[in-house]
Amino acid sequence: MTITKEQWIELEKHLTGYFCSAIFKFGEFEITVTRGRVSESKTSLVVYVDDVIKGDWYSKDNERPACIPDVWRKRTRAKYTAKSIKEAEKVWGKRRAKKEMPELYEKTEYHTCDFTTAKSLVRQYKKLDGLELIKIGGKTYNNYIKV
After folding, report:
1. 111 pLDDT higher than 80
2. Number of Cα atoms under 13 Å in the Cβ half of residue 45
3. 3-state secondary structure string, 46-95?
4. Which listed residue, 5, 49, 64, 100, has the most CB atoms within 10 A of its CB?
5. Are 47 and 71 contacting, i.e. CB atoms less than 8 angstroms apart?
6. pTM
7. Cα–Cα–Cα angle for 77, 59, 104, nearest 5°?
8. pLDDT tens, 4-16?
9. How much is the average pLDDT of 103-112?
10. For all residues of the chain together, what is the average pLDDT?
């Protein structure tokens, strides 16, 4: 059953609150979203797969649930800092720097289990096919029973 526009609006509004939670069904996985503490003064929306987050899932080399790239936030980071790139270009010039260091402009892609805003989570989750809304806070949808 697809999630309606009204439910997306209700979900986004609910997830902006301090004490919030939502449960989804995505394929064979249960996805739980809650607000968690990142630091002393900062919180974010944390995504659990079957009520678990494992450190091994952060590495592409390790075995992890197939849904991780879909339900976690994609991040990218440059292999070299802007300062390092500028220094290499100054020494060799752009063409030679690219020739000497082919990975100079490459970026690394990884996924994290937290979203900074409810809007970004909803934007990503709207694109998922087969996502079912089970619960927003205390309001249950689809007569779902966890086994």
Report:
1. yes
2. 24
3. EEEECCECCHHHHCCCCCCCCCHHHHCEEEEEECCCHHHHHHHHHHHCHH
4. 49
5. yes
6. 0.82
7. 30
8. 999 999 999 999 9
9. 92
10. 90
